[in-house]
């Protein structure tokens, strides 16, 4: 008899986990922006070089990390955000899996600088391929700056699989939009190869949508408001003329988190029935608030798929409130898109 099963070394386990969490530069952007939000930042700057293939850097003015925590942050399953399984059904943070930084550090060169508001000195850590090469004190403002360079330097198959800069930048911009729309109160900047792509001042939802999508968007928005026991809905739908043949601008948020949900998407499009030209897709920016124990976020590592307790009721409420909003504005079927 021979025993053949062995525990994988941490750096190998991290690299395997990274396969799920980090598919492309945009995944790094999402994880770092979400960490900055969880840290209570009121201002976040995203700096990207070469569509993230060379650098993804996120600078926040959040609560920072202690020296020890800055090191712990890169351990797998290390998190300050939950403590027990029960917490999974009472989530108030974007993160909770404690996987992102460990995964990113397994497949890139990472420099983390962080300082808490009540300390004089911050800390600076260099780590690559899961190995810490140095940790030194750092003079800096409070908050955290994390720089991720040479993504997939040790996973050539993944590196080769990356798309053109245009496509990867598009994906990054999509992630930036999702986070920025979910958090209009946070000031957000996005610089790519020294070009200022977005400078978003803090504001309300309408202002944030208009700042991102352009001033013409303003007159095309119809407000949606609904409050029931199981869900509170706010946000906007685009007037039918705003509908496009292409995919349209479709944003659904649950408890400040962007999600994809085919069934609820259908509820929204169903409400537009008869108002859209064949093949046109409605635009929407809808924000749902549901009790945190009525939604399961822990279905997939990227957390864009979620499962609700009572999807049928949600469907009915969303469809009715969108229909109501459309009716109130007496949108006529003549107002089709002309482009
Ligand atoms: P998770 O977000 O699921 O907890 P991460 O690997 O993304 O896991 O981060 C690990 C931990 O590092 C977090 O729980 C948090 O305590 C700390 N951390 C990460 N980014 C920041 C940041 N920008 N500011 C302060 N703390 C951070
Ligand atoms: Mg995180």
From TrEMBL:
Q: Does the keyword tRNA-binding apply?
A: no
Tell me the superkingdom of the source. Answer: Bacteria
Q: Which UniProt keywords apply?
A: DNA damage, DNA repair
- Asked if Phosphoprotein is a keyword of the record, the answer is no
- Signal peptide (residue range): none
Q: Which GO terms describe its molecular function?
A: ATP binding; ATP hydrolysis activity; ATP-dependent DNA damage sensor activity; mismatched DNA binding
Ranges for domain DNA mismatch repair protein S5 come to 209-327
Question: What's in the GO CC field?
Answer: mismatch repair complex
Q: Which GO terms describe its biological process?
A: mismatch repair
Q: Which family does it belong to?
A: Belongs to the DNA mismatch repair MutL/HexB family.
- Function recorded in the entry: This protein is involved in the repair of mismatches in DNA. It is required for dam-dependent methyl-directed DNA mismatch repair. May act as a 'molecular matchmaker', a protein that promotes the formation of a stable complex between two or more DNA-binding proteins in an ATP-dependent manner without itself being part of a final effector complex.
Q: What is this protein called?
A: DNA mismatch repair protein MutL
Organism listed in the record: Nonlabens spongiae
Q: Which gene encodes it?
A: mutL
